[in-house]
Amino acid sequence: MLTSDLVRATVYKASLRPSFLAEGDSAWLQSAEELLEMFRRAVGSPIAFIRDEMVEAIEGEDLPVVWKGLARVLEARCHLVPAEKQVTWQARLDLFARAAILRQNSGFDAEKRAELVSMESAQIGANSLEFLEALYADVPGHETISAFEDISARRLLEEYNLALAQGVVLRSEWLEVELQKGSTRQIRNLINAAKFHQLHWDLTADSDQPEKNIRIRFDGPMSLFDSTTKYGIRLACFLPTALAVEEAKISASLIWGKRPARKVIWEYHGSKVPFPNRHRLAPPAHPEIKGLHKLWQSTENDWELDACCQVLPFGESQFWIPDYLLKNRSDGRKVFVEILADWKKDRLTKMIQGLSESPEIPWLLVAKGSSKRAGFDHPGLGWYRSFPSPEKLLLWVESRAIKPLPG
């Protein structure tokens, strides 16, 4: 993702317009190919080498911030390793101590410096140039590019657009994804990805078309009191999953600019902005959700466990997509189960209140933490620190499951 100094966008009437690169822009395709050729040649050289070459390449070019953004995307595809020969910290201290003594006693000119470097380099079996490289081998920027994950120029523009969008949402108060109610699998994928990245969200009906659409609103880093950088990175890592849903409408409220900053809105809905399609696969599930599935497979009982893709309305304009549906093979009792590895007190309270008002939905929430942290407890809420045993889970399930209502 791009850092704030590399994000290029304009504001028009409180609407943000990120400056994405067009897929068929021949000028930027040519520039991307030039950059790719630089990185291909740089394999085996220090990363500082390609950075110096970049400074020369963009001198006099229009929009140098875009060149730097493209280069940042390519740097992320480089595998960096430290130099083979390194000077130990003790040897480095001794070297600088001797240099300081020479400077104090008789001056320290280029000739004495060369003599001191030559003497020290002989001790590690290297020439003077290799010794100087080894002296600063652990300093960022002096690593060697051992391999480069090559891509096409067109793919580089797509990756740049994605990195630019991620840089935008780092300043968001909230991110909202609007989908049709029938897109249950897509909604399930988004919720799985949100859980995997430990995001906070609300699932509600669209206020304009409640009978057709569902909105998933995710908290943004600017809405939090602390850990905004860490949470912002998690939201940015989630964004590719949302962008991969072609029928989704994405919007975000952002804090933009400096002195004074103001609120702007970014909207994206099926435009012709090219993004990479490598994130179209189903997102990974949170470890706790995977853990429940494995745990159930290793347990002999009368309950059948299936992944759930149902959109369940409850409470006042709220919706719920549980992780699993558990059904008893003998008597037909069932219960919907959700694993909450990360949660917020107000959201949890609102969810429990809404589910408690919907007697037709048998539910069980299994949350990480304790009732002391939440400040309340409920019969439909099970707490765990390390993942609960099968016996404890079965006890919770038995107490919450009900037979389906007739009709």
Average of the residue pLDDT scores: 82
**CATH topology descriptor of the largest domain:** Trna Endonuclease, Chain: A, domain 1
General form: globular
Strand order of the largest sheet: 6-7-5-8-9
Measured on Cα atoms, how large is the radius of gyration? 28 Å
Number of domains: 4
Fold and architecture overview:
The protein is an alpha+beta fold. The chain folds into four domains: 1-82 and 140-164, no CATH class; 89-126; 170-282, 2-Layer Sandwich (Alpha-Beta Plaits); 287-400, Trna Endonuclease, Chain: A, domain 1, CATH 3.40.1350. The protein is built from 13 helices and 16 strands. The chain has helices at residues 26-41, 47-58, 64-75, 89-106, 110-123, 128-135, 153-169, 184-196, 228-243, 287-297, 345-356, 371-374, 390-400; strands spanning 9-12, 15-18, 78-81, 144-148, 172-180, 201-205, 213-219, 249-256, 262-269, 303-307, 312-314, 318-320, 324-328, 334-340, 363-368, 381-384. The strands form five sheets. A five-stranded antiparallel beta sheet has the order 6-7-5-8-9, covered by helices on one side. A five-stranded mixed beta sheet has the order 10-13-14-15-16, covered by helices on one side. Strands 1-2 form a two-stranded antiparallel ribbon. Strand 8 and strand 9 form a beta hairpin. The radius of gyration is 28 Å and the shape is globular.
